[in-house]
Amino acid sequence: MLESVAIGFGASGRNGGQIVNSYSRDMDVIEKQNGAETARALGAMAFEGNQIIRQRIEKYQINCDLKEGNLLPPVIRNSGKA
Ligand SMILES: Cc1cc2nc3c(=O)[nH]c(=O)nc-3n(C[C@H](O)[C@H](O)[C@H](O)COP(=O)(O)OP(=O)(O)OC[C@H]3O[C@@H](n4cnc5c(N)ncnc54)[C@H](O)[C@@H]3O)c2cc1C
User: Fold this and answer.
1) Cβ atoms within 10 Å, residue 27
2) pTM assigned to the model
C-alpha cells in the first residue's frame, strides 16, 4: 500500500460511515457532463459498490455494526444545503 501520510488519513479514515449510493451531484448533471451511457455506468457502479461492501462484511465477518435503513439529512429551507 502506498500512503503519503498515515494509513486512514484520507477520506476513508474520516467519513461518516454511511453507505452512500450517489455522487456529490445529481445524475442529470453527470449525464449532461459525461453523456447518457457514462452516467448509466456510473449509476450502476454506485450500487455495485454498495453490494461489494455488504459481501465483504459477510465474507470477512467484519464486526462493523451494519444497520439497514435510510439516511434523511436535514435541509435548511431555501438553502438547498444539507
Ligand atoms: C468528511 C467526509 C465524510 C464522508 N462521509 C462519507 C460517508 O458517510 N459515506 C460515503 O460513502 N462516503 C463518504 N465520504 C466520501 C468517501 O469517504 C470518499 O469518497 C472515499 O473515502 C474515497 O476513497 P479513496 O480511497 O478514493 O480516497 P481516500 O480515502 O481519500 O484515500 C486516498 C489516500 O491517498 C493518499 N495520497 C494522496 N496522494 C498521494 C500520493 N501522491 N502518494 C501517496 N499517497 C497519497 C492520501 O493521503 C489519502 O490517505 C466522505 C468524505 C469526507 C471527506
Assistant:
1) 15
2) 0.77
